[in-house]
Amino acid sequence: MKNLLRKCYQPYHVSSFYLSKLHHLVALLSRLYLAKVFFSAGWVKLRDWDTTLFLFEEEYQVPLLPYEAAAYLGTFGEILFPLLLAIGLTTRFSALALSVVNVVAVISLAEIAPAALYLHIIWGLLLAHLAIYGSGALSLDNILKRFRLKNSFQYPAN
Fold first, then answer.
1. Residue 62 falls within a domain, yes or no?
2. Fewest Cβ atoms closer than 10 Å to its Cβ: which of 41, 53, 59, 65?
3. Is residue 6 assigned to a domain?
4. 102-125: per-residue pLDDT in tens?
5. Are 23 and 31 in contact (CB under 8 A)?
6. Residues 42-72 pLDDT 10s
7. Considering only CA atoms, which of 102, 110, 115 is closest in space to residue 34?
8. Is 14 domain-assigned?
9. What are all long-range contacts of 40-43, with beta carbons under 8 Å and residues at least 24 apart?
10. Domain limits at 54?
11. How far apart are CA 82 and CA 66, in angstroms?
């Protein structure tokens, strides 16, 4: 019985090992995809600032903030955090910040098309994955972490 269980478990164990190595690549692809989506939205806002202000005043209903502050903060978030996400620097913080931008975008529209809502849900899930599991090995976060551990000062034992 033990041999049968071992034989059944072996392919699962091997495939699990190799699939876990894909996390780094999937995290990188997720970061680049999300960076493109959010940075593109921020860039459109920057290119036509008068329209952006008009939309924040008339179309978007951002709670608790004056429309000018919402326009500046939203655009700032859509420009800065995708850049940090793309290079993998402060990935967890950037993913959380973009999650706020994502949620505010959904709740600030009175009516949102089902396809658009579906995209926001996908983006939210990808951002949650990055916030929980981190940026993976292919990131500046990982390089800095290895550098910090390599050069960390050890106090002598008393």
1. yes
2. 59
3. no
4. 999 999 988 899 999 999 999 999
5. no
6. 999 999 999 999 999 999 989 899 999 999 9
7. 102
8. no
9. 41/78, 42/74, 42/75, 42/76, 42/77, 42/78, 42/79, 42/82, 43/79
10. 23-147
11. 24
6-20 burial, b for 16+ CB within 10 Å, e for fewer? eeeeeeeeeeeeeee
Position 32: which residue type? Answer: L
pLDDT category, 31, cuts 50, 70, 90? very high
How far apart (Å, rounded) are the C-alpha atoms in residues 15 and 12?
5
Report d(CA 3, CA 26) in Å as an integer.
35
Report how far residue 136's alpha carbon sits from residue 59's, in angstroms, rounded to the nearest whole number.
38
Structure token pair of residue 93: 């913080």
Contact 43, 79 (CB under 8 A): yes
For the record, the structure tokens of 40 come out as: 């593109």
Count of C-beta atoms within a 10 Å radius of residue 120: 15
